[in-house]
Amino acid sequence: MNKKITIAIDGFSSTGKSTLAKQLANNLGYVYVDTGAMYRAITLFAMQNGYIGAEYFDKELLINSLTSIRLQFKYNPELGFAEMYLNDVNVEKEIRTIEVSSFVSKVAEIAEVRAKLVEQQKEMGKDKGIVMDGRDIGTVVFPDAELKIFMTASATTRAQRRYDELLQKGDAVTYEEVLKNVEERDYIDTHRDNSPLVLAEDAIEIDNSHLTREEQFEIVLGLVNEVIKTE
Fold this sequence. Notes:
By secondary structure, the chain is of the alpha/beta class.
């Protein structure tokens, strides 16, 4: 029986990290964890409680409320993946809005928030056999992961993908609004003091600007099989 490994997928927003991670987890029979959903859920909590808005962000109130935030992934057999629950409420749809996207990088900058979630993420992956995607999985959460993937694509390509996705969900957004959000998130993610988005020295970078989901999956599955053979 093949030895189970840890697969860390990092990269910029809207590069399809979650889609790839789900594909790999389903193919390999691994656990999939969307760390972005965890940060989005805390962002939604901050929005619901009036801690963050367009012109303000009360970080101390959010930090002091962290102990009252309970996050869970619950598997939905009809969808084939786990959905995010915030304090026992399914918030999978709410956390994917452009409003949450506009604030999530600011929330993810907070050291106390990252410490809380990184601790949970490390616990989730202690037995390996996991695919986890985010911004600091290969550098902070699982620095010893057997396979690290770093995904990138041009900002315009990512904005178009995100725009199309939001339109399909019925959200009233403009392409310009989405592109601005993508560029702002890129800047915050790569310039924050705590666990910035960086390419790990031993990560394999994949620019999927011109790859289909199927092509990308086959490339990475090939990398996975190479690693497993050598373990």
